[in-house]
Design goal:
about 240 residues; alpha/beta; Rossmann fold; 8 helices; about 30% helix; globular
């Protein structure tokens, strides 16, 4: 049992799907896992373990930001011997070239965050998805006929900012979208020699202020969820 996750040893599967929102994790587990059991609810951050097509899978939540997912992913990797984490999240698009509900398979996470530097002495501002899960997700999206964009993303520590321009680091690496967690997840996986991937759904178009509802963010991201599950059982 770790500090922030109260599951007992063996109660979490080797592959974990990690949503930001605890209610999204609850929805995913109840709708898609067979015999789902809640194995942790510390701080109302839920973790469930069950099976999908006969394969044991865990689903949990990470909260928002590098600091939060940094804690949860580290404890999953080190305290529960998790081998792979697939983050499922929403993101904002920097331009109108991307549309609401577009799927993004994150090739790398770009960030100004000091997380990787001060946690693991990783100096790069651009950290790749770790292991072969990124390629597996791409192949599975083709099998399911789910259009997906392979792209680097901007992992920002900032949700609200006064400057409406695209941040320079996002422009530097041609990041079409922004989210807040992948950089820390990939940094932890790199340091610990684990697998990590991230699938995102575009929930906001920043220039036009288009967005999906809070309820849709929780319950209507079915292609992303199915793609993650179908990929997870093949890892």
């Amino acid at each position: 049992m770790s500090i922030h996750i109260s599951a007992l040893p063996g109660e979490i599967a080797p592959v974990v799907l990690l949503a930001g929102d605890p209610l999204r994790a609850k929805f995913m587990a109840e709708q898609y896992l067979e015999n789902a059991t809640r194995v942790s609810e510390t701080r109302n951050v839920y973790f469930y373990t069950g099976t999908y097509k006969g394969v044991r899978i865990s689903i949990g939540a990470s909260g928002m930001g590098c600091a939060s997912i940094g804690i949860y992913s580290f404890e999953l990797y080190t305290e529960y011997q998790v081998e792979c984490i697939i983050r499922l999240g929403t993101c904002g698009a920097y331009t109108t070239e991307r549309k609401l509900l577009d799927l993004i398979n994150v090739s790398s996470a770009v960030s100004e965050s000091s997380y990787a530097k001060y946690a693991w002495d990783i100096s790069s501002e651009n950290i790749l998805a770790q292991g072969d899960t990124f390629s597996l997700i791409t192949a599975q999206s083709e099998s399911l006929q789910f259009p997906i964009i392979q792209a680097p993303v901007h992992s920002s520590d900032i949700f609200y900012r006064k400057d409406a321009d695209i941040p320079s680091i996002a422009s530097k690496y041609n990041c079409p979208v922004v989210e807040m967690e992948s950089f820390a997840l990939f940094a932890n996986a790199q340091y610990l020699h684990k697998k990590a991937a991230c699938i995102l759904t575009v929930s906001d178009i920043i220039p036009t202020h288009e967005k999906i509802s809070a309820d849709a963010r929780e319950k209507s991201l079915v292609p992303m969820i199915l793609l993650a599950l179908e990929s997870a059982i093949r890892i």
